[in-house]
């Protein structure tokens, strides 16, 4: 088994490799690995978008940038330093089945990283929507340190012989996961989304940052904002003005089809909505909006809204706001830039894996 220092070093090297995705001057320290993998890496980025049209080059490269930023020596050591050393020195290696979603690029990489960094074995089943990038990065990790070959197994069929499960999917798939994996120690993630709370005091620049939280990955991630809470009397034209720079999203065929479909449905059912050619704003108390749609709801009292959001904790991934009085809010523009210790569904997977021992 690799010791924790070797594991951190390997992932730090992987982070440096990833950072070369658009660098015209490759890292000289990675010359040998680059000779075998760098051209293939760039091809894989393109291939991912061919097989899944949601995975545009910009979105794949943004995901890669976030991981290259996260996988630094300082970040990895800061993350590890939050736990007792026993969390990364298991008495026995456990095989952890990871069933990955495919809604955004490399959405399953954090689980992959966590299982390996804690000294356990990965038995992963990538989504067919995202089965190019992570297998390629796994190859590079093995090239960095061949001992990883013994602890990484990427499966396409039925998963067998494992000790615990981490599964991510929809509310429907979660019922399936509960049925088949309920007898194992498990983390089963369901549908979540994110919301933004506006006060009316936001600057145009801050609202544009909110646009990234809405439109990055075409709004398909659980950290994407799909619902706006607006104060009474708010001028919704402020939103349309700030979002104008994101009009290119409708050029994506899949997004454009969703926009046209939802617009047609709302018109046939005579629903009230506002639209600007690339996003539909619709008043609705629900949290989860379909692609190309953002719901909004009016609030009159921030204390009451905080209470409401606290009650929705199990359905929310993030709350975005510039108002410091909003509970647990993060700054606009940062929804898709989590730290290593910002866990999906607020379930600490390092602690979970420690409990499996």
UniProtKB/TrEMBL annotation:
Transmembrane segments: none
A single BP term in Gene Ontology: bioluminescence
Statement: the UniProt record of this protein carries the keyword Cell wall biogenesis/degradation: no
Pfam families (alphabetical): LuxC
The keyword Lyase appears for this protein: no
Gene Ontology MF: a single term: acyl-CoA dehydrogenase activity
InterPro entries: Ald_DH/histidinol_DH, CoA_reduct_LuxC
UniProt KW keywords: Coiled coil, NADP
Coiled coil: 295-322
Protein name, UniProt field: Acyl-CoA reductase (LuxC)
């Amino acid at each position: 088994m690799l010791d924790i220092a070797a594991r951190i070093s390997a992932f730090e090297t992987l982070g440096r490799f990833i950072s070369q995705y658009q660098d015209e001057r490759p890292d000289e320290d990675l010359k040998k690995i680059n000779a075998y993998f760098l051209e293939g890496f760039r091809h894989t980025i393109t291939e991912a978008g061919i097989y899944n049209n949601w995975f545009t080059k910009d979105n794949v490269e943004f995901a890669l940038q976030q991981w290259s930023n996260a996988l630094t020596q300082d970040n990895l050591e800061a993350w590890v330093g939050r736990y007792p050393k026993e969390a990364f020195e298991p008495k026995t290696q456990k095989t952890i089945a990871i069933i990955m979603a495919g809604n955004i690029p490399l959405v399953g990489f954090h689980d992959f990283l966590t299982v390996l960094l804690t000294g356990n074995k990965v038995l992963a089943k990538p989504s067919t929507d995202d089965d190019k990038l992570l297998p390629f990065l796994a190859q590079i990790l093995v090239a960095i340190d061949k001992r990883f070959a013994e602890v990484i197994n990427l499966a396409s069929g039925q998963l067998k012989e494992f000790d615990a499960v981490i599964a991510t999917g929809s509310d429907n798939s979660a019922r399936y996961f509960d049925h088949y994996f309920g007898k194992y120690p498990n983390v089963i993630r369901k549908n979540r989304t994110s919301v933004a709370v506006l006060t009316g005091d936001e600057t145009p620049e801050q609202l544009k940052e909110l646009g990234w939280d809405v439109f990055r990955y075409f709004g398909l991630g659980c950290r994407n904002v799909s619902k706006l809470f607006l104060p009474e009397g708010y001028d919704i034209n402020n939103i349309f003005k700030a979002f104008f720079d994101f009009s290119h999203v409708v050029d994506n065929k899949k997004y454009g089809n969703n926009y046209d479909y939802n617009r047609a449905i709302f018109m046939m059912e005579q629903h009230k909505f506002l639209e600007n050619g690339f996003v539909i704003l619709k008043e609705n108390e629900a949290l989860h909006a379909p692609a190309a749609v953002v719901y909004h709801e009016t609030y009159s009292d921030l204390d009451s809204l905080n209470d409401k959001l606290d009650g929705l904790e199990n359905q929310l991934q993030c709350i975005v706001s510039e108002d410091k009085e909003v509970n647990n809010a993060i700054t606009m523009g940062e929804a898709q830039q989590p730290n290593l210790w910002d866990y999906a569904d607020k379930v600490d997977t390092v602690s979970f894996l420690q409990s499996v021992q």
